[in-house]
Amino acid sequence: MAQSMLGAFLAVATATVVAATAVAGVALWRRPVDPTAVAWSATLPWLGGHEPETHAWNRFHARYYPMTLVLLAFEMEMMFMYPWAVVFAELGTKALVEMAVFLALLSLGVVYLWREGGLAWQ
């Protein structure tokens, strides 16, 4: 029994090595032969292929990040509302009350954020 398990392991290991070698060989062979290959500098996302002068974290003012977090919070709200809409017909009033409580809590968060000036754009 141990001999057959060892044979199965060796077969899997051999297949893995052969597959990895084939993938590496094709990747290395493709690079000099591919007519559609472009220089690495042309694949940079900004300035028409030139090196960016600043790092991506330095380009945006810090006041944009809280607004981004608020947006993500509301996106998560929608993620919970779609499945709720699917089962609303089955659960009826109970589901309606649960969603009302959920939206009331989110509304309290928005009112607090508004009162604290988190939505002020200065």
Would you kindly provide a written description of the structure presented here, covering whatever features stand out?
- The N and C termini lie far apart (74 Å).
- The chain has one domain (2-115).
- With 122 residues, the protein is mainly α.
- It has helices at 2-33, 64-91, 93-115.
- The radius of gyration is 28 Å and the shape is flat.
- It contains three helices and no strands.
Compute the number of structural domains: 1
Alpha-beta classification: mainly alpha
Using the alpha-carbon principal axes, give the shape.
flat
Describe the largest sheet.
Answer: none
Low-confidence stretches: none
- Separation, N- and C-terminal Cα atoms: 74 Å
Q: What is the string of SSEs from the N terminus onward?
A: HHH
Radius of gyration: 28 Å
- The helicity comes to 55-70%
Strand content: under 5%
The count of β-strands is 0
Average pLDDT, rounded to a whole number, is 80
What's the total helix number? Answer: 3
